[in-house]
Write a structure and sequence with these properties.
Helix content is about 45%, strand content about 20%. The protein is an alpha/beta fold. The longest helix has 30 residues. Bound molecules: ligand C2E and magnesium ion (3 copies). It comes from Cryptosporangium minutisporangium.
Length: about 290
């Protein structure tokens, strides 16, 4: 006891914490220049229909191609960017890159404009609070030619209660779809699904990975089943993310989930790789 609470503990702990703070500070001050140099890139993780196995679209996931540190995961920098506000211009760039790619995906032209693969983009709370958000979305859709119906925006389940509904209503009126991301067993704001113009509920990987695992229980199935039932009753689609095995996929299909996402299908792919993954792509048709 004396050892963990004695002065020696601080001698070890403090420098470590300071190092982390320095690293965080250093990363956060590097963001504006990194944005100028176009170091933020987007990868696309396929969203797959669970009943027919077709690719419905992709989630756009940001990465930072850092000059010294290599490809950084959003877990390393998105939280920091939210703290400093840098997430607003970074998120604007992600939206632009994501829509630009989606506008060139094969399969887009041959069906009515609202069909074709869609792209789902994560939005931080800071972006939602930014009064320019809706105008940014309108401008990016115009610039890229992507129909609004092929853009989906994801809001983290833990933050939806703090959001002003006016921009959500305006986005919905444009035809943009809204998804509540990372819904897990503890989410208690289910009534919001009726009050907000939400189209999609995304079940978190943590919930999905308990299915068909060693510590599975009937309760996990029932939680998912009731979330799916409620969503469908309200006219929402359900996407299950973090699917890693065929057992999970099968169980989610049985429980009524519409769409799946996860390493079982594919990891996040580079823009060209994702195009090759699409069934309508010329690369596949030529085989
Ligand atoms: P998210 O929106 O829930 O995205 C899903 C995350 O799960 C991604 O991590 C994805 O790579 C990962 N994943 C996919 N399949 C599997 C699987 O089968 N198993 C497991 N264990 N994980 C899987 P990633 O790309 O590291 O992104 C992490 C989080 O960072 C995202 O979670 C999202 O909250 C945030 N994020 C990513 N891109 C953006 C962005 O452009 N803007 C904002 N604001 N946040 C972003
Ligand atoms: Mg997401
Ligand atoms: Mg997700
Ligand atoms: Mg998620």
């Amino acid at each position: 006891r004396a050892k963990t609470e004695g002065p020696g503990r601080w001698a070890v702990y403090e420098p470590h914490r300071n190092e982390q703070q320095v690293a965080r500070y250093w990363l956060s001050t590097a963001m504006p220049a990194a944005l100028e140099r176009d170091e933020f890139v987007v990868e696309f993780q396929p969203l797959v229909g669970l009943t027919d196995g077709t690719v419905r679209g992709a989630e756009a996931l940001v990465r930072w191609r850092h000059r010294e540190l290599g490809l950084l995961s959003p877990k390393r920098f998105v939280g920091l960017a939210e703290e400093t506000g840098a997430i607003v211009p970074i998120g604007r760039r992600v939206l632009q890159l994501a829509c630009r790619q989606a506008a060139r995906w094969p399969g887009s032209g041959r069906q009515p404009a609202s069909w074709g693969p869609y792209v789902s983009v994560n939005l931080a709370v800071r972006q939602f609070r930014d009064p320019g958000l809706v105008d940014d979305v309108v401008r990016v859709l115009e610039e890229t030619g992507l129909p609004a119906g092929r853009l989906q925006l994801e809001l983290a389940a833990g933050t939806v209660t703090t959001l002003n509904t006016a921009p959500l209503e305006r986005l919905a009126a444009l035809g943009v779809r809204l998804a509540v991301d990372d819904v897990s067993a503890g989410w208690s704001q289910l009534s919001l699904l009726r009050e907000l113009p939400v189209d999609v509920l995304k079940l978190s990987g943590s919930l999905v990975q308990r299915l068909a695992g060693t510590d599975r229980s009937a309760v996990d199935d029932q939680i998912i089943e009731s979330l799916v039932g409620l969503s469908h009753a309200l006219g929402l689609q359900v996407v299950a993310e973090g699917i890693e095995s065929v057992e999970q996929r099968d169980r989610l299909r049985e429980l009524g989930c519409d769409t799946g996402q996860g390493w079982y299908f594919a990891p996040a792919l580079g823009p060209e790789e994702f195009i090759r993954y699409l069934p309508d792509s010329p690369a596949i048709a030529a085989r």
